[in-house]
User: Fold these one by one.
Assistant:
Number 1:
Amino acid sequence: MVEHTLRAYDEELEGLTAELSRMGGLAEVEVSDSVRAIARRDVALAQSVIGRDARLDEIEAEIERRAIRMIALRQPVADDLRRTVAALKISSNLERCGDLAKNIAKRALVIAESDPLTPLTRSIERMGELVSARLKDVLDAFASRDIDRARAVWQRDQDVDEHYDSIFRELLTYMMADPRTITSCAHLLFVAKNLERIGDHATNIAELIQYEVTGESVTDQRPKLDSLER
């Protein structure tokens, strides 16, 4: 009976992990597509990103339901408890990534109606590629429970900050040179800020992976820029 119970719990835990991996894959696509919608001025793609966000919300709710049920009925301890709690927290971070991608897509709809600002759009696209790569790396680290890979994502947090600050200064320059660009630049600034926040969520997930695998929290200060704009 005990062996059967343990096997059933292991199967539930594996199912929870699989669902979380699926959610991660969807969030990764949402972020990439939202940036692509900005770069290509693709209204249909932006609308698709907005419509898909509800699916991430549903999966997060399902993961929360499963995790709470497992904690209540199985009363896991040690490694199993950490995996269950980490799944709850990681799903919350992924849901926020989806929300931020939806916000970017909404900005893409507005930006598509204005005159192109190609140099700025390319800067946003480069930042988006960097953030998408960090999200992919941290999800791969989660799938393989690879602490070193998760730590590498954590240590690169400053890279996203540097891109954000560079875009911030670039946008200010455009707005001061030509007030007609203020509206478009303001939307692009919100896009850059949303991307920076997605980078922060990737860093959060990296910290949760270390906690899940080792039982120890990251105690170091995150490598952040000391910037007035932040």
Number 2:
Amino acid sequence: MGRNLGNLERQLFAYAQLRNLRTLATGDLLEPLKISAKQERELYSRLSRAGMIAQVRRGLYLVPAKLPLGAKWSPDEAQVLNALMGTQGGRYQLCGPNAFNRYGFDEQVPTRIYAYNNRLSADRQVGAVALTLIKVSDDRLGDTEEVPTADGVSLVYSSRVRTLVDAVYDWSRFASLPRAYGWIRTELSAGRVGVKELVRTALRFANQGTIRRLGALLEGLGAARKQLSDLEKGLRSEKSLVLMVPNIRGSGKVDRRWGVVRNDPV
């Protein structure tokens, strides 16, 4: 479509810019543009196909602050996530590869956005933004930090310590073991996280397998027994053992205190 906009297209952008709107939904244009529901639906569809607005979900669209100059426009991840979650009263936090890269655990820049949230579980494409939305319960959201963007909005990330715990907890999804053990060792040595923080975060957000693995890891890295007492209290009595690195085969010493088989290189 480029700059060859029709009258309705020009009116849509003028209306959005005049009112400083970044999102438009089904029904928003009926009264101000004096059009029918069918005309509105076709207008959104034309501009979305032309890459001049971006459909976030059915009936919800993101609109650029300024009319794109002959090129396709795409929102950034902050705009997409804040619109998608905000309109549904949801919460999110970037996790996995995005958080690994932010905190310097992994130098690879992910091409997909991973976000824990309490509304949707799906893969989505909004403009150039590829999303993997991971629905979790409300009590698994938290321990976050907000990062401002150049557009004046913020992205919500899992905190540094939460990211380390999730790298052990969600190892299958993020392929993060045994790398996470090395990250934890480095972060402890550098003083960027502490044993107390890791224990507190694991007890709040992790499962039994994670608590067992972290307990064995921290004890092996020299954490005092007293420092790990709360973590040990969080253990349930289970006869089965878990592997420190669950995605590889191999034998190792059995750690009876934590109920793990030490088949890890740490």
